[in-house]
């Protein structure tokens, strides 16, 4: 087998042992010493069988090994203390088995981790542009980027205060407003699509370019300190195709997302490829019609998060304000709406988004959502999973 597998095979001499962890409440792993046709293998006394085990809700896991020769006989039954971080080595063929990895497949060849919260931007601390700066690939720029303190944290209606002198944070950003130059800042409110064009031209994508917030900027873990600072290039946007793969093409994709409520915040939960639900909690997959079926306290969410779950809050969209000359200073009143930028353009105006609402989750990031690049939408970055 390989690291990260929940089921697999490895060899004892010329024979094969099939390993299949049970998902039942008894938390029993059965190691079947068979070639699959009821021809059981004779193994010498003190031969050790090693298996990759997912972390369980309880630390104690019962392991039963059966050897059948005519009659069904339980040879051993022992209890092992399973530690999440412990590494076990198969001394027979030098394979290392370890705790399962948390990641999200966004293509057959790419696995990622989601950022710990949505991307936020603060233009100034004291009301004077330039009183705070951050590093970029092109030197210092005004303002500072950070991740939200919790995955369910959002700014929502206060985004209407957006300006270059607003002292608090915003989280609904125009497409490609990475601070790469003076007229590509997150606080811009122009209604002209050309004011949000990437450097390479209107009909280009921004993945891995200076228009991608995570690629161009360093990002702080908190807004007031640099104790958790991620260098430029650590994070980046998913493409349209990667969102589609995540939500519709990876293994058991339909079982790994649902609308939900965390505390007082509605949104969508995503589950990693390898998932074990914490004991005492429930999760109903593929809920798209309401936010109430999956409802959690923030304490319950902390357990889901620790197990690898991701939560995308319904942050609404920043749109045109007829009382402000058509500038993008109004937040859409529909509170159930969540809309997240991809790095993929559609034409010289529209951009693909990952959209969800009560009644729909759109794995195919459709242009019918009127995803004008001058609208303000949420940003959730990812980084490559590295074992």
Q: What are the key terms here?
A:
387 residues, mainly beta, 4-stranded mixed β-sheet, 3 helices, 26 strands, disordered N terminus
Produce a short descriptive summary.
Helices cover 6% and strands 32% of the residues.
Please give the share of residues in helix.
under 10%
Shape from CA axes? globular
Relative strand content = 25-35%
Q: Number of DSSP strands? A: 26
The strand order across the widest sheet is: 1-2-3-4-5
**Structural class determined from secondary elements:** mainly beta
Q: What is the residue-mean pLDDT, rounded to a whole number?
A: 79
Radius of gyration of CA atoms, rounded to a whole number: 25 Å
What kind of oligomer do you see? Answer: single chain
SS element count, helices? 3
User: What order do the SSEs take from the amino end to the carboxyl end, as H and E?
Assistant: EEEEEEEEEEEEEEHEEHEEEHEEEEEEE
Distance between the termini: 16 Å
Low-confidence stretches: 1-99
Largest sheet: 5 strands, mixed
């Amino acid at each position: 087998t390989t690291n990260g597998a929940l089921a697999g095979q490895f060899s004892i001499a010329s024979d094969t042992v099939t390993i299949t962890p049970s998902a039942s409440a008894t938390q029993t792993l059965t190691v079947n010493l068979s070639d699959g046709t009821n021809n059981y293998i004779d193994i010498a006394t003190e031969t050790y069988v090693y298996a990759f085990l997912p972390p369980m809700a309880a630390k104690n896991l019962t392991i039963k090994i059966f050897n059948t020769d005519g009659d069904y006989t339980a040879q051993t039954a022992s209890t092992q203390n399973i530690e999440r971080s412990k590494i076990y080595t198969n001394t027979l063929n030098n394979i290392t088995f370890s705790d399962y990895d948390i990641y999200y497949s966004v293509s057959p060849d790419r696995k990622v981790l989601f950022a710990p919260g949505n991307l936020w931007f603060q233009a100034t601390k004291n009301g004077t542009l330039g009183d705070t700066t951050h590093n970029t690939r092109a030197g210092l720029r005004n303002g500072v980027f950070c991740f939200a303190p919790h995955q369910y944290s959002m700014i929502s209606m206060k985004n209407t205060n957006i300006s270059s002198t607003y002292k608090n944070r915003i989280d609904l950003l125009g497409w490609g407003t990475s601070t790469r130059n003076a007229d590509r800042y997150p606080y811009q409110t122009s209604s002209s699509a050309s004011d949000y064009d990437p450097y390479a031209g209107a009909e280009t994508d921004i993945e891995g370019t200076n228009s991608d917030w995570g690629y161009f900027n360093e990002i702080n873990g908190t807004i007031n300190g640099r104790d958790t600072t991620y260098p430029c290039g650590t994070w980046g946007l998913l493409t349209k195709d990667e969102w589609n793969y995540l939500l519709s093409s990876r293994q058991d994709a339909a079982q790994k997302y649902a609308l939900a409520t965390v505390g007082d915040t509605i949104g969508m939960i995503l589950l990693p490829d390898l998932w074990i639900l914490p004991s005492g909690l429930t999760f109903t997959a593929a809920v798209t019609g309401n936010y109430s079926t999956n409802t959690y306290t923030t304490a319950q969410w902390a357990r889901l998060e620790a197990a690898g779950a991701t939560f995308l809050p319904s942050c609404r969209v920043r749109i045109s304000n007829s009382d402000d000359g058509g500038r993008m200073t109004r937040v859409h009143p529909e509170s159930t709406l969540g809309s997240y930028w991809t790095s993929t353009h559609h034409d010289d105006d529209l951009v693909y988004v990952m959209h969800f609402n009560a009644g729909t989750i759109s794995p195919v990031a459709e242009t019918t959502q009127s995803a004008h690049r001058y609208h303000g939408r949420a940003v959730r970055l990812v980084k490559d999973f590295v074992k």
